[in-house]
Amino acid sequence: MVTTNALRPAWTPLTILLMVIGFIIFWPLGFAMIAYILWGDRIPEIRRHFEGAAADAKREWRGFSSRTAGGYGFANSGNAAFDAYRERELKRLDEERRKLEEERREFEAYASDLRRARDKEEFDRFMRERSNRKGGGETIDL
Questions:
Q1: Model pLDDT, residue 51
Q2: Element (H or E) spanning 74, and its range?
Q3: Dist. CA 45–CA 7, nearest whole Å
Q4: Quick one: which of 64, 78, 116, 125 has the fewest CB in 10 Å?
Protein backbone atom coordinates (compact mmCIF):
# COMPACT_ATOMS: atom_id res chain seq x y z
CA MET A 1 0.00 0.00 0.00
CA VAL A 2 1.38 3.39 -1.01
CA THR A 3 0.73 6.28 1.36
CA THR A 4 1.23 9.82 0.27
CA ASN A 5 1.86 12.61 2.67
CA ALA A 6 -0.10 15.38 0.92
CA LEU A 7 -0.50 17.49 4.07
CA ARG A 8 3.13 17.92 4.87
CA PRO A 9 4.78 21.19 5.86
CA ALA A 10 5.76 22.24 2.36
CA TRP A 11 4.38 24.27 -0.55
CA THR A 12 2.12 21.58 -1.99
CA PRO A 13 -1.12 22.23 -3.89
CA LEU A 14 -3.13 21.01 -0.89
CA THR A 15 -1.38 23.28 1.62
CA ILE A 16 -1.71 26.27 -0.73
CA LEU A 17 -5.41 25.53 -1.21
CA LEU A 18 -5.94 25.21 2.57
CA MET A 19 -4.07 28.50 3.09
CA VAL A 20 -6.30 30.33 0.58
CA ILE A 21 -9.45 28.83 2.08
CA GLY A 22 -8.19 29.80 5.54
CA PHE A 23 -7.75 33.43 4.44
CA ILE A 24 -11.24 33.44 2.90
CA ILE A 25 -12.97 31.95 5.95
CA PHE A 26 -11.03 33.62 8.77
CA TRP A 27 -7.71 35.35 8.15
CA PRO A 28 -5.85 33.92 11.21
CA LEU A 29 -6.40 30.43 9.76
CA GLY A 30 -4.52 31.50 6.65
CA PHE A 31 -1.62 32.74 8.75
CA ALA A 32 -1.67 29.54 10.78
CA MET A 33 -1.39 27.57 7.55
CA ILE A 34 1.57 29.70 6.44
CA ALA A 35 3.23 29.07 9.81
CA TYR A 36 2.62 25.34 9.37
CA ILE A 37 4.13 25.40 5.90
CA LEU A 38 7.21 27.30 7.06
CA TRP A 39 7.86 25.76 10.47
CA GLY A 40 5.73 22.59 10.54
CA ASP A 41 8.74 20.35 10.25
CA ARG A 42 9.87 21.64 13.65
CA ILE A 43 6.69 20.54 15.46
CA PRO A 44 8.28 17.37 16.94
CA GLU A 45 11.18 19.47 18.27
CA ILE A 46 8.80 22.03 19.77
CA ARG A 47 6.67 19.29 21.34
CA ARG A 48 9.75 17.67 22.91
CA HIS A 49 10.90 21.08 24.17
CA PHE A 50 7.59 21.85 25.89
CA GLU A 51 7.24 18.34 27.29
CA GLY A 52 10.75 18.67 28.74
CA ALA A 53 9.94 22.10 30.17
CA ALA A 54 6.76 20.76 31.77
CA ALA A 55 8.65 17.84 33.30
CA ASP A 56 11.32 20.23 34.62
CA ALA A 57 8.67 22.48 36.17
CA LYS A 58 6.95 19.51 37.79
CA ARG A 59 10.26 18.28 39.19
CA GLU A 60 11.09 21.76 40.50
CA TRP A 61 7.67 22.15 42.15
CA ARG A 62 7.96 18.75 43.79
CA GLY A 63 11.37 19.74 45.14
CA PHE A 64 10.04 23.09 46.39
CA SER A 65 7.07 21.59 48.18
CA SER A 66 9.28 19.05 49.94
CA ARG A 67 11.67 21.78 51.14
CA THR A 68 9.06 24.10 52.64
CA ALA A 69 9.45 25.18 56.22
CA GLY A 70 6.54 24.91 58.61
CA GLY A 71 3.92 24.77 55.88
CA TYR A 72 4.28 28.46 55.03
CA GLY A 73 5.75 27.86 51.59
CA PHE A 74 9.23 29.11 52.40
CA ALA A 75 12.26 26.97 51.76
CA ASN A 76 14.69 26.35 54.60
CA SER A 77 17.47 28.91 54.61
CA GLY A 78 20.06 26.50 55.95
CA ASN A 79 20.40 28.48 59.17
CA ALA A 80 18.49 26.73 61.96
CA ALA A 81 18.34 29.81 64.21
CA PHE A 82 16.90 31.97 61.46
CA ASP A 83 14.40 29.27 60.47
CA ALA A 84 13.22 28.98 64.10
CA TYR A 85 12.92 32.78 64.36
CA ARG A 86 10.93 32.92 61.11
CA GLU A 87 8.66 30.13 62.32
CA ARG A 88 7.95 31.99 65.61
CA GLU A 89 7.27 35.27 63.82
CA LEU A 90 4.95 33.65 61.30
CA LYS A 91 2.98 32.00 64.12
CA ARG A 92 2.78 35.36 65.93
CA LEU A 93 1.53 37.08 62.78
CA ASP A 94 -1.06 34.33 62.25
CA GLU A 95 -2.31 34.87 65.80
CA GLU A 96 -2.52 38.65 65.20
CA ARG A 97 -4.44 38.02 61.98
CA ARG A 98 -6.89 35.75 63.83
CA LYS A 99 -7.41 38.42 66.52
CA LEU A 100 -8.04 41.12 63.92
CA GLU A 101 -10.47 38.87 62.08
CA GLU A 102 -12.39 38.22 65.31
CA GLU A 103 -12.53 41.97 66.07
CA ARG A 104 -13.80 42.64 62.56
CA ARG A 105 -16.59 40.08 63.01
CA GLU A 106 -17.55 41.62 66.37
CA PHE A 107 -17.65 45.12 64.85
CA GLU A 108 -19.79 43.94 61.93
CA ALA A 109 -22.24 42.36 64.38
CA TYR A 110 -22.31 45.60 66.44
CA ALA A 111 -22.88 47.75 63.33
CA SER A 112 -25.63 45.39 62.17
CA ASP A 113 -27.36 45.69 65.56
CA LEU A 114 -27.13 49.49 65.37
CA ARG A 115 -28.65 49.52 61.88
CA ARG A 116 -31.44 47.19 63.01
CA ALA A 117 -32.20 49.42 66.02
CA ARG A 118 -32.17 52.57 63.89
CA ASP A 119 -34.47 50.98 61.31
CA LYS A 120 -36.89 49.85 64.03
CA GLU A 121 -36.94 53.34 65.53
CA GLU A 122 -37.64 54.93 62.14
CA PHE A 123 -40.38 52.42 61.38
CA ASP A 124 -42.02 52.97 64.79
CA ARG A 125 -41.95 56.75 64.24
CA PHE A 126 -43.49 56.29 60.78
CA MET A 127 -46.27 54.14 62.21
CA ARG A 128 -47.01 56.70 64.97
CA GLU A 129 -47.15 59.57 62.45
CA ARG A 130 -49.32 57.53 60.15
CA SER A 131 -51.78 56.64 62.88
CA ASN A 132 -51.91 60.30 63.99
CA ARG A 133 -52.73 61.40 60.43
CA LYS A 134 -55.52 58.85 60.08
CA GLY A 135 -57.12 60.13 63.20
CA GLY A 136 -56.23 57.77 65.97
CA GLY A 137 -56.28 54.43 64.18
CA GLU A 138 -54.74 51.29 65.58
CA THR A 139 -51.03 51.13 66.07
CA ILE A 140 -49.02 48.03 65.53
CA ASP A 141 -46.32 47.54 68.13
CA LEU A 142 -43.42 45.42 66.92
A1: 77
A2: strand 74-75
A3: 19
A4: 78
